[in-house]
Amino acid sequence: MEFFDESIPISHIRQYLFCPRIPWFKHVMSFEPPEQGWVTQGKRWHQSQNPRHKRRLHHDIESPRECIIDAYVKSSTLGIHGLVDEIVMNAEKCVVIEYKVDKGKPTLAQKYQLIAYSLAAEETYQRDVVAAILLKGSANKQYRISVSNTEKINLINVLASMRKVLSCQRVPFSSASEAKCAQCEYLRYCNDR
Ligand code: SF4
């Protein structure tokens, strides 16, 4: 078994926590289904939301501020990289923001994706992340996500278990519920569902 030591795209952490087979299909089988309509819709929605929430960040980070959309971040320490929807920064601090079109409280998978972006942003831009924010649903609701030592350790454990799965040629076990599979773009490729 060859150990998977490549840098992991951070969006795949969220997918792994949704179902471990999804990043396995992408990395081991090199298979990516065509982009679905809801993904395109999500991208358009992200773009439309950008100007709407800036004033709510002003108490987190003093001016002069700079805003980067689709900011590339990378952590060599954790072996992860990705594009954050938005980073607002000044000379010492930054705020990491991710948009999600779905409503309701953040899922565990969404939280760990944002935690990973925050740690990678800290390493890339050499600034303290003072807030990690999920903006969700059409109501544009803000959820602030904690990035404590416990969450960092949990993320390291998730990455270790991902690397194990991605090092193996055998399709991983999935405990995904029927509801999850019903909304999954890989459904037709999972022959035990
Ligand atoms: S169809 Fe179900 S088991 Fe298969 S990848 Fe999707 S969520 Fe996982």
SSE layout:
Blueprint: E1 8-9, H1 11-18, H2 21-27, H3 37-49, E2 66-75, E3 80-89, E4 93-100, H4 108-125, E5 128-136, E6 141-144, H5 149-166, H6 178-182
Parallel strand pairs: 1-3, 4-5
Antiparallel strand pairs: 2-3, 3-4, 5-6
Helix pairs in contact: 1-2, 1-4
The structure holds iron/sulfur cluster.
Give a short overview:
The protein is an alpha/beta fold. Helices cover 36% and strands 22% of the residues. The model has no long low-confidence stretch (mean pLDDT 88).
Describe the structure.
The protein is of the alpha/beta class and 193 residues long. It has a single domain, classed as Lambda Exonuclease, Chain A (Alpha-Beta Complex). Helix content is 36%, strand content 22%. The protein has 6 helices and 6 strands. The protein has helices at residues 11-18, 21-27, 37-49, 108-125, 149-166, 178-182; strands at residues 8-9, 66-75, 80-89, 93-100, 128-136, 141-144. Strands 1, 2, 3, 4, 5 and 6 form a 6-stranded mixed β-sheet that branches. A hairpin with a 4-residue loop joins strand 2 and strand 3. Helix 1 crosses helix 2 (21-27) and helix 1 (11-18) runs antiparallel to helix 4. It is globular and about 55 Å long. The mean pLDDT is 88. Iron/sulfur cluster binds next to helix 2 and helix 6. The site of iron/sulfur cluster has 12 residues, from helix 2 and helix 6.
